[in-house]
Write a structure and sequence with these properties.
8 strands, 30% helix
Length: 258
C-alpha cells in the first residue's frame, strides 16, 4: 500500500513521531512506499495532491494552543483524499492537545479522508524546551511502534467504526500570542531562515526582523539557524516556562484512538 505522510513540522518534533509510525508500517510490510507532503513548504501546490482511495495517509500536525495551526489547516484543506483511509496524529509539547484532534478530524473529513485511528504524542515544546525535552524518547518509540501494529491490524481486518476522539466543537479560541523571533548580533544574514519560513514572514532583504502580521510563532527560524542567532523576546522566554510549569511539569503519555 502506498502511504502519504502529510505533515506540518516546523521544528521537527511532529516529523519524528510521523517517521516512527510510518517506518514501523513499512517494516511490517503494510506500506511499500511513502510520499512526503510538507505543509511547511509555502511554494508547493497542495491542490496537486490527489490521493487514490486504495492508498493510505498519515496526517500529522502539532497542537498550537490546542488547535491545528491555521496555516497547516489552510493547506491541508486543499488536498484531495478521495476516500483514502487516514491516521490522524497530533503532537504537543507536554501540555494538552485540547481541540486539535477534532479540528483535524473535521478537516480530514472535508478533504474526503476516512479517519481510522488517531495518535497523540509528546515532543519537545517548541518554545519552552525543558518541557517534553528529548521526546519522543526510547519509551515513546516502543509505544508508537505498538500503536502502528494495532492500526495495521484494524485496517487489514477491514474493521470500521466511527472514530471517537477527545475534543470539543465548537473549538476553543485559537492562539493569539504573537512571538515573532528576531535576529541578534550573531546573524550572518545567510538567508536560511527566510528560505524555510512556512509563512514567508522573513524578507531576504530584511533578515533581522520578522513580519509580525505573517509570523505564526512556529519557531522554525530559531530551530534551523546554524548560528543560534534568532530568538524571541528575552523576558517572554524567561517567563513562559514559569507560566507553563503547572500544566507542563508532569510527564504526559501518548494515546491511541482506534
Amino acid at each position: 500500500m502506498k502511504g502519504y505522510i502529510i505533515l506540518f513540522s516546523p521544528t521537527g518534533g511532529t516529523e519524528k513521531v510521523a517517521h516512527i509510525l510510518s517506518q514501523e508500517m513499512k517494516t511490517a510490510g503494510f506500506l511499500y512506499e511513502t510520499v512526503k507532503v510538507d505543509l511547511c513548504d509555502r511554494n508547493f501546490d497542495f491542490k496537486s495532491v490527489d490521493i487514490k482511495a486504495e492508498d493510505f495517509a498519515l496526517i500529522a500536525v502539532p497542537s498550537y494552543g490546542g488547535r491545528v495551526p491555521a496555516l497547516a489547516a489552510e493547506r491541508l484543506a486543499l488536498v484531495k483524499g478521495n476516500g483514502a483511509r487516514a491516521v490522524l496524529v497530533c503532537v504537543y509539547g507536554n501540555r494538552d492537545f485540547d481541540d486539535t484532534f477534532v479540528e483535524l478530524q473535521d478537516i480530514a473529513h472535508f478533504c474526503g479522508f476516512m479517519s481510522v485511528a488517531g495518535v497523540s504524542a509528546v515532543a519537545q515544546h517548541s518554545i519552552a524546551a525543558q518541557y517534553g525535552a528529548g521526546r519522543p524518547d526510547d519509551s515513546d518509540v516502543q509505544v508508537l511502534k505498538e500503536y502502528a501494529g494495532r492500526i495495521i491490524d484494524k485496517v487489514r481486518a477491514a474493521y470500521g467504526s466511527d472514530l471517537q476522539i477527545i475534543g470539543d466543537r465548537p473549538y476553543k479560541k485559537g492562539m493569539n500570542m504573537h512571538l515573532a523571533p528576531k535576529a541578534g548580533s550573531k546573524c550572518t544574514e545567510c538567508g536560511l531562515c527566510a528560505d524555510v519560513c512556512p509563512a514567508g514572514a522573513i524578507d531576504k532583504d530584511n533578515i533581522r526582523n520578522t513580519d509580525k502580521q505573517k509570523c505564526i510563532s512556529c519557531m522554525r527560524c530559531v530551530a534551523v539557524c546554524p548560528h543560534k542567532a534568532r530568538s524571541i523576546n528575552g523576558v517572554i522566554k524567561l517567563l513562559l516556562p514559569v507560566a507553563l510549569k503547572k500544566v507542563c511539569g508532569e510527564r504526559k503519555e501518548n494515546q491511541l484512538f482506534i
